[in-house]
Structures are given as structure tokens and as C-alpha cells.
Design goal:
single chain, alpha/beta, Maf protein, seven-stranded mixed beta sheet, 29% helix, globular
Length: 189
């Protein structure tokens, strides 16, 4: 089965490719010649995922899935949430985003956070959603060299290392994206 993963994020693409079964051929936006930015104007994570899928499906007649992910920090009223990629500005810089989170958490005891991912899948013009959540906390300084986004400051519950200290396989076993993707793969199977 050929299916499009509607993302320009090479890190997300790599994470998903590792988990995808061999019988499913993953096509990236680069593979199909799609280079424009896909609109993300919804005020919800699931809304953005659905919007991306609809945008691609209107242009290509292949099954497609897309995700949107947000980091929700309890003591920051669930910020950055749907604005996670552009928390520190439209330039979407991970370092600036982490700096702003750490600054906004100064002096706060409660550093509990969670990542939420929603995958939207369009098969034969029918949309299905799959959600994954990973609970954890924001640590006080960047730790680890792997991963992307907020991975260096997010430590999942029951672990003593951040996502940025884990291999892609280890992270995929417990992460929000991994949980949602396993649900999507089970549905496709």
C-alpha cells in the first residue's frame, strides 16, 4: 500500500518510517513533489491534523495521513499547545521555543507537561483520527543530543532521561507519536 505522510518535518518522517511496517510504502511530501507549506490555522491539534489531510487529499488521489503535535504545560495554562512549533515566533526555532518555555517556568514548582499527537487518516475520502499522549515534566536545562523540538527538556514519567537521550526506537515505544502511530498502523492492518 502507498500512503502519503503529509509533513515537511524530516525528523517526524524519520520517526514514522522506523515504525511503519514494510508492506506500507510511505511517501513523503518531497516524494510527491509537494513543496508548499500546508495551512495550520485551526485552534486545536486535531483540527490542524484534519486540515493538513484535507489539503493534500484535494490535490492527490492517494491515501494520506498527517499529524499535529502540541506540548501542554499545566502551570502555563496548557501552553504552548497548538502553537508549539511557533511558540517563540513564526520563525519556528526550537531553541527559541525551549528558551521561552524555560523562562516562563522560572519559579514554578509544577513542571508537569504532556505531549499530545493526533494523526488524521484519509482513506477513500473518509477521515479517521488517532490520538497519543505522553505524560511527563519539563526539566530545568537541555539534556541529550537526539530528537528534535522540545525533546531535550521533556522527561517522560517513570524515566530518568529526556526524549533527546533516547534512540528513535526507544522513544517510539513510549512517545505520544508512537502511541498514535501504532493505533493508525493497527487500523491499516
Amino acid at each position: 500500500m502507498d500512503i502519503i505522510f503529509a509533513t515537511h518535518n524530516k525528523n517526524k518522517l524519520r520517526e514514522v518510517q522506523i515504525m511503519m511496517p514494510q508492506e506500507i510504502k510511505l511517501l513523503s511530501l518531497e516524494d510527491i513533489g509537494m513543496h508548499e507549506d500546508i495551512p495550520e490555522t485551526s485552534n486545536t491539534i486535531s483540527g490542524n491534523a484534519a486540515q493538513k489531510v484535507k489539503y493534500i487529499r484535494q490535490r492527490y488521489d492517494l491515501p494520506v495521513f498527517a499529524d499535529d503535535t502540541g506540548l501542554e504545560i499545566l502551570s502555563l495554562n496548557n501552553e504552548p499547545g497548538v502553537y508549539s512549533a511557533r511558540y517563540a515566533g513564526e520563525h519556528k526555532n526550537s531553541e527559541d521555543n525551549m528558551d521561552l518555555v524555560l523562562k516562563n517556568l522560572e519559579g514554578k514548582r509544577d513542571r508537569s507537561a504532556r505531549f499530545v499527537t493526533v494523526f488524521a487518516l484519509d482513506m477513500e475520502r473518509c477521515q479517521t483520527m488517532f490520538e497519543g499522549v505522553c505524560e511527563g515534566k519539563i526539566i530545568e536545562q537541555r539534556t541529550g543530543e537526539y530528537g528534535f523540538g522540545y525533546d531535550p527538556i521533556f522527561m517522560p514519567n517513570d524515566f530518568d532521561k529526556t526524549f533527546a537521550q533516547m534512540s528513535l526506537v526507544e522513544k517510539g515505544e513510549i512517545s505520544h507519536r508512537g502511541i498514535a502511530l501504532r493505533k493508525l498502523i493497527a487500523y491499516l492492518s
